[in-house]
């Protein structure tokens, strides 16, 4: 693989585009607003300088490999070996895009979606190449959290999975390959129940967040517990997940948890980003060495 197209240069697409370019591939970016795509990609400079100690020159070398940023799908895909789609999480929008790109892409192009919630067999039917379709799920801040979950359908060819795995390594990701389709992949299949159980213990009044985290951290050796993680994810997202669960199940306990978090949000406790959530930042109690001793 040499030429990689990224569709959608938002939070994740801009990161995938830059990481791929920095690793020496020719990158084309498709985004309906060209200027915001450019701005987002350039804004990664401070992160790469701080976390990976890139010099100005090295960062620029990466930028030089982004050959085109365009609002025209045909231009972006015309010689792509791999197209990674990171468009908004709307099935309707993705359907429209995959139908269009299927007509325009060369036969060789492998299609990969970065979707967090749609499994590949929901998206592959919109394309003309189910054997060349898979999901590649990157984590936010890919230069630091460098895992990519690779998940095909029963129709995806094994060579395509192999090629995607090789590409993931070439852009310095650790590939995690799923043998079967699974909503939430591996990480969220593990994480969401942990967070939901922690929140349920708190809402029922079984113990407070610090006590719950302390038990989890001492017993498993984990560097943080569910409430430390919830602060990192942000309470707005966590409350939304609980509201969605309530809408689906009508289980009142989800509504109760969402309301409790909503009240915290109203009081400015939105999580790590706002300086306070279940803990206060930048020095949350769970990071104090004494936290685990008593
Ligand atoms: P985002 O909203 O930040 O970015 C979407 C980009 O697509 C924007 O730049 C927008 O201008 C552009 N866009 C919107 N409609 C378009 C269209 N019709 N044609 C061309 N460009 C269009 O979204 P995101 O957070 O980067 O998420 C993108 C995908 O990545 C989603 O499928 C999401 O599930 C997945 N994902 C997100 C995260 C995350 O932490 N944000 C993590 C893993 C996976």
From TrEMBL:
One term of GO molecular function: (3S)-3-hydroxyacyl-CoA dehydrogenase (NAD+) activity
Occurrences of domain 3-hydroxyacyl-CoA dehydrogenase NAD binding (ranges): 4-180
One GO BP annotation of this record: fatty acid metabolic process
Site, as annotated: Important for catalytic activity: 137
Position of the signal peptide: none
Statement: the UniProt record of this protein carries the keyword Protease: no
Top-level division of the source organism's lineage: Bacteria
Enzyme class: oxidoreductase
Keyword Iron: no
Residue span(s) of domain 3-hydroxyacyl-CoA dehydrogenase C-terminal: 184-281
Gene3D superfamilies named among the record's database cross-references: N-(1-d-carboxylethyl)-l-norvaline Dehydrogenase, domain 2, NAD(P)-binding Rossmann-like Domain
Enzyme nomenclature, EC number: 1.1.1.35
Pathway the protein contributes to: Lipid metabolism; butanoate metabolism
Family: Belongs to the 3-hydroxyacyl-CoA dehydrogenase family.
Protein name as annotated: 3-hydroxyacyl-CoA dehydrogenase
Originating organism: Limosilactobacillus reuteri
Organism classification: Bacteria, Bacillati, Bacillota, Bacilli, Lactobacillales
